[in-house]
Amino acid sequence: MTALLNFTGRNIKNYLRDRSAVFFSFLSMIILIVLMVAFLGDAYTDGIADHIKTALPELDAEAIEADCSYYITMCTLGSVLLINCVSISMMMMGSMIRDEATGKLAVFYSTPVKRWILSLGYIMSSWLATFGLSICTLAFTEGFLAVTGKQLLSFAQIYRLSALLALFSLTFSAISMAVATFFHSMGSWSALQTIVGTLSGFLAGSYVPVSSFGDGLQTVLRIFPFLQGAAALRTVCTEQILQTGFVGVPEEIKTEIGKEVGNILVSGTHTYQPSEQIIILAVYGALAISATVLITLRRRAKEL
Asked: Which residue range(s) make up the domain with 281?
C-alpha cells in the first residue's frame, strides 16, 4: 500500500510541476469557452428563445431570453466538465509513456514492486488529478456565478455532479490507460491527445447540436462514452433552471429543447435515463480496466 501511495503521489507531483502540461490539459476547455462566449452561446440562446417565443408569444420575451442564456451556460458547464475528464486523464497518462520512453518504467519493473501496483498507480494518479481539477473547475464556476449575480448551483446539484465526476474521472483514466498500452513514444501520444482533444467537443455534442446530425451519426455518437457522459452532466447542471425558470413553458417544449441540445438522448422510442448513462460509463471503465489487465498479463507472459 505504501508503494502504491508513493508512486501515485509521485505521478501527481510530476504532472503539477509541469505547468505546460497543466495548461494544455485545459486547452480544450478554454477553446470551448471562447467559442461559446464569441458566438456559439448567442446562437444557441437565440435558437432556443425563438423556438419558445414562436410557440408561446404571450410569454415575457426578456425573461425567456434570460432563462435561455442561463440554461446554455449550464449546458456549457456540463460539457466543460466532461471535456476535462477526457483531456486531463490523457495528459496524466502521458507520464507512463514518458517513463517508458526514458527507461524509467524498465527500472520500476526491475524493483520488487509488482507490476499491477505500478499500473494501478498510474490509474489512481490520473483519477485523483482529473477528479481534483474537475472539482476546482466546478468551484470556480460557482464563484463566477456568485460574482455575476446569477443563480448558484444547489447543494444537491454539486453533490450529484461530484459523484458523476468521480465516476467519469475513473472511467476515462481507465480508458486512457488501456489505450496508452499501445503507445511507446511521447510524439505519437501527443498526436493522439491533439486529435481526441479536438474531437471531444464534437463527440460530446458541445460545438454542434446533436439534433443537427443525421440519425446514423447520432447512433454512432450514442455508442461512445463522450455524449452519454456529457448528457448526464448537462442534465444535472440544467435541473434547477428547468424547475425554477421558464415560467409558463410546458414540459413538452422543455423536453424538445433538451433533445435539441443533446441533454436528452433518444434512440428510437427509448429515452436514456441518467441511471442508464451512469451504467454505460461504468461498463466502459470496467472493460478498460479488464483490457489493461489482460494486455499486461500477456506481455508479462511473453517476457518469461
From this structure: 2-303
